[in-house]
Amino acid sequence: MGSLILKGAKIAGYDEVVSVVVENGLIERLELAEAADGKVLDCEGLTLFPGFIDVHDHGAVGVDVNKADVDGLVEIAKFLATEGVTGWLPTLVPDSDESYRRVITAIDRLMEIQSDLPIAQALGVHYEGVFANEKMCGALRPEYFKRFSGTEVADIPTLKDGVHMTTFAPEIEGGVELAAELTRRGWIASIGHTRADVDTLERAFAAGTRHFTHFFNAMTGIHHREIGVAGWALTNPEVTFDIIADGIHVHPRMLDLACRKKSPDKVLLISDSVAPTGLGDGEFELWGETITVEDRRTRNERGSIAGSVITMHDAVLGMRSIGFTSGETAKMASTNPARILGVSSSRGSIEPGKRADIAAFDADGTIKFTMVGGRLVQKP
Q1: Bridge partners of 90?
Q2: What domains appear along the chain, each with residue ranges and CATH number?
């Protein structure tokens, strides 16, 4: 692939202007002086963020992960790359076992071919809500929910390689045992779609659970006499959470309060995007019903929010607009997801030896280009 020098940029979180030398898809070195001996890309006035990693993405540009074939997944990943995303977890809502098997086969195939393509790289799969509380289903379909009696995790289709994450409610029948089984198998067990009490949360924590899905949404909130799921997570310093920073799922002031209380070192930004993302307003068929998108807000036939239509780029801009620094947002959009997924040795920061996965912002917050493994993706 040869050398490429990103000349005269700042790296999010640092003040120095540097040249980033990329060699064979990896960051070879950072130089304060002007680098030589390579093709030069002038990045004066740009800020380089580590490529974003979205651990919760149901689709975009009209393609729903639950229904996608390989070509559809590639289309999603192309779009994500233009929005600064270099790694993602295709995310499934509860569905039939037959659908799971079909999509897992498609993701396996995607992961076999993606390294040669300038697209967001699938890092695994996220099963959202297979084991959820029916009373906290949100936009999910409870007819596909499962309970845990000991064998159900083994029956869920898995990838040949990659991260496996699931969102579950620990208060369901067998839920704490489920947390232990997921942990034993190396899955990321994330609590969500839940109204678990404090004792159940403590037992799930003891069983290995350390993360919470789309914080505040589809979980009990904070009351001064009833701490709720959200209150328990905020006051446990050892857990992390992800959050939808669209200003709709969570009020901007509550975003600010929760993320500062937890600290940017323990928060992940997610899109929770659904198939209509990137298509504008209108009516769309999704998960067996019609949803309406209007002014970035989704609504299903029951009046519930049905995912989001933002991108990780939107989430980063949203956090910047309420006062978080470039360095803090880079942690939440890139560094922390890489750590949670166990891929921080190669992703999540702009450092020598890591993949050249980069999103370049101008002073107005526009993405000028994305780099995926050293390959440039120009934003249309």
Answers
A1: 57
A2: 51-348 (3.20.20.140)
